[in-house]
Amino acid sequence: MGDAFGKYGKTLLQICVIINNIGVLIVYMIIIGDVLSGTSSSGVHHAGVLEGWFGDHWWNGRTFILFITTICILAPLACFKRIDSLRYTSALSVALAVVFLVITIGISIMKLISGGIMMPRLLPDVTDLTSFFKLFTVVPVLVTAYICHYNVHSIDNELEDSTQIKAVVQTSLALCSSVYMMTSFFGFLLFGDATLDDVLANFDTNLGIPYGSLLNDAVRVSYAAHLMLVQISYPAFGMLSNSLERPLLSVSGSFFLLPLLLGIITT
């Protein structure tokens, strides 16, 4: 980066990546907390997976769950020197995303066949200036969806044949785009106007199909595990190892910055 941007440009770029990744990590940790420990929206409490299984206890509260996630999963995955070390967790994460998507599609098709789904709105309901500006809230979602782009250079450096990077990027974009579009389509088809900002919170209701409770838990657990393994570890890896280009910081920095990040989320 120093050759391309100079000394000060390199430092500025690193700072921007760190700030960006901290924000993304906060978002993902909030989602994990919502899925496992529950969340409240418009005065309605949506129980988390662990809360639904075991009831409300201190050890399945948001603070403790995020602490365990940070120390036992996020920090160790961010400590690897090479991004290639995340290949197995990446493969497992993709498989979990596919499980989440397949279950969502299956539920939608079953309810569509049984007549349990009403035709959702195809266009947004824009009635005033406020509702118009709400349309732009989708922009951060789209930007966050492709948050691992800064790792492309690290991946390129670790490839034996650097000409493969183009195919790697194209395949990744195609896979991610397909999963995102199908998830949004079938999620909105399933819940319609009742779709929450975090669609995972919708999966705590009675779906009106056999084994609905089991499928609800499978969807939320698979997506939470997906976030833990890759969506969180890649931004953390990029922030602590790739951006600063100091291998030791990926270890010592992880156990200092990530608990600090946890404190910001839970306060």
- Say how many strands there are: 2
**Structurally, how many domains make up the residues?**
1
> How helix-rich are the residues, as a percent range?
55-70%
Low-confidence stretches: 246-252
**Shape summary:** globular
What composes the largest sheet? 2 strands, antiparallel
Spatial gap, N to C terminus? 36 Å
Give a topology summary.
Layout: H1 2-37, E1 39-41, E2 44-46, H2 49-54, H3 62-78, H4 87-114, H5 129-134, H6 138-145, H7 152-158, H8 165-191, H9 212-231, H10 233-242, H11 249-266
Q: Can you give a write-up of this model?
A:
It comes from Carya illinoinensis. It is a multi-pass membrane protein. It is found in: Membrane. This is Amino acid transporter transmembrane domain-containing protein. One of its GO terms (molecular function) is L-amino acid transmembrane transporter activity. This protein has 267 residues and is an all-alpha fold. It has one domain. Helices cover 69% and strands 2% of the residues. It is built from eleven helices and two strands, in the order αββαααααααααα. The protein has a two-stranded antiparallel ribbon with strand order 1-2. A hairpin with a 2-residue loop joins β1 and β2. α3 packs across α10. It is globular and about 60 Å long. About 3% of the residues have low confidence.
